[in-house]
Amino acid sequence: MIELTVTGMTCGGCVKSVEKAVKRTDETAAVTVDLASGSVTIDSSKPAEAFKSAIEAAGYEVAA
Length: 64
Ligand SMILES: [Cu+2]
Prior knowledge:
The protein has helices at residues 12-25, 48-57, and strands at residues 2-7, 30-34, 39-43, 61-63.
């Protein structure tokens, strides 16, 4: 299980963008995004780095 803290999400549209970035990286990943806390939980066998890059490329910041 991968847990990332994402900052810069302000609305449901941002949540969708982050979910899309995750799915682009691994279409079979199960992803849960909590808008209030910025917590993004991903169930995938791919490395966390791959998701971090994808989310950053979508325009959000990922805390280490
Ligand atoms: Cu938004």
